[in-house]
Amino acid sequence: MVIDCLKTFSVMKNEILEGLTTVNSIFKFDFSNKASYADISKVTHFRRVHKIYVTGEDVPDPLENFSQLVGDYGVSSTILDNIKNLGYLNPTPIQMQAIPLMMHNRQILACAPTGSGKTAAFLIPLIHNLKGPEKVGIRAVILAPTRELVKQTYSFCVKLSEETGLRPLIIENVNDVKDRPKFLRKHDILISTPNRLIYLLKNDPPSIKLNKVQWLVVDECDKLFETGKEEKSFRDQLAFIYNACDSSFLKRAMFSATFRHEVEEWCKLNLDSLVCVSIGTKNTAVESVKQELLFTGWEAGKLLAIKNFLQEGFTPPCLIFVQSKERAKELYSEIAFLYSKVYVIHSDLTQEQRDKVMQNFIDGKIWILICTELMGRGMDFQDVQVVINYDFPTTAIEYIHRIGRTGRAGKTGRAITYFTTDDVENLKNIAQVIKNAGCEVPEYIMSLKTKKKKNEFQRPIKRQKISTVPVYDLQKQSKKRKLIQNSIKKKLKKKVDA
Ligand code: ADP
Ligand code: MG
């Protein structure tokens, strides 16, 4: 094995693997009985072909095919069969490099495009490393930002761990887990949002122990590093969970489609002998998606544009992104009567309702799904044909994730982004992403000046209500509502005073 042979020359090896050193510097070392230059250049070439970039020491060779897992790592035929049953013939680039790294118990920060198979890249080595059930409690934790993504990862995990005896767990209801240590002990892998897990950890005494956790995987890690208001801060929640996993054997793996410098800095500081893996150019949209920008003039123009789009005919399924749940409801009420197969999903629905909508979308009963950022990250719907950004995304990162719901696993897709004069400030950033992916962007947009943002998280701009009712009438209705509310308040006050 190349890795074993080169251990003594670790620093230099990485340079070689990255193709950074010259032939001269290689010959300064004695390579007798060690990997030949041909082997190294083969690995370098292989990585280059698959756009795999690695930094770190002693990086194992990338995997060329799944059957290598058996010979090189002793992966059971059960796991290999589970991989085959999912229809995976060959590993994707992130799987090629992340799987061997995690097999070697290395801590990693991995960045690979949307829909490139990151889930299996961490699940396969995790399932192999845990071997079989031990009934000592949770030994691996996978965190994801939304309940929908947690469920999706859980279902992948169930499929990949079939017949291994390992038991994955998601917390549907905190009361199912509370005060049930025996139940928890029977499970090996916990997949959760930070919120649910924190709730259990903060009970007195804690309802769950994480002292046996060997692997902490943070999916969509750049999202989970976001700061927010007190208890809603993903970053604080992550820190709490991180501290609760206090085993000395703990290893962490961070995965995301988008890269934040801050996350990399944190990982470099806190994770021993970290390896950073990235596939392709960082923070780019997938090239398999045909991306278009459409100027609709003003807010009301967007409603006309979407109705036109739906009337002209398109290949479903289609996802329509808006910036808030209020706007999702508004848009739904405007187009629901036109199409029976349109529905809406947002955080005001109960979990049960959300699950039902998701299932109906997956089953093809819903063709057009209006959604918010809730669906923006990680969701892997089969064959979404079109993504429409009804509301212009606030950041390029948000844009990359939203349009990454289509064009997954090498398939093609289409993304249409509406913009109005109100969106000009952010336009250039997103247009740049579109251009970098090889799609056409009008020159006048590219010549706009980019405004430097104060911080990378921007609030969505205030927009006019989505409605066919003229603005004048809407204002009149709102004034009337306020007058009624005020008169009710006055009457109540009078009653209290009397
Ligand atoms: P990501 O997390 O990178 O956005 P996912 O893990 O959700 O991507 O995978 C996207 C899709 O690709 C899923 O439908 C998954 O089943 C499929 N997939 C993953 N790995 C492979 C593979 N090696 N071969 C074929 N399809 C794969
Ligand atoms: Mg994912």
UniProtKB/TrEMBL annotation:
GO terms, biological process: maturation of SSU-rRNA
Location of the DEAD-box RNA helicase Q domain: 68-96
Any one cellular-component term (Gene Ontology): cytosol
Catalytic reactions of this protein: ATP + H2O = ADP + phosphate + H(+)
Positions of the Helicase ATP-binding domain: 99-277
Protein name: Probable ATP-dependent RNA helicase DDX52
Catalytic EC class: hydrolase
Keywords, in A-Z order: ATP-binding, Helicase, Hydrolase, Nucleotide-binding, RNA-binding
Molecular function via GO: ATP binding; hydrolase activity; RNA binding; RNA helicase activity
Sequence motif Q motif, location on chain: 68-96
UniProt keyword annotation of RNA-binding present: yes
Helicase C-terminal domain ranges (all copies): 302-449
Family according to the record: Belongs to the DEAD box helicase family. DDX52/ROK1 subfamily.
A Pfam family this chain is assigned to: DEAD
Enzyme Commission code: 3.6.4.13
Organism expressing this protein natively: Larinioides sclopetarius
Entry-linked Gene3D superfamilies: P-loop containing nucleotide triphosphate hydrolases (3.40.50.300)
InterPro entries given in the database record: DDX52/Rok1_DEADc, DEAD/DEAH_box_helicase_dom, DEAD_box_RNA_helicase, Helicase_ATP-bd, Helicase_C-like, P-loop_NTPase, RNA_helicase_DEAD_Q_motif
Lineage start: Eukaryota, Metazoa, Ecdysozoa, Arthropoda, Chelicerata
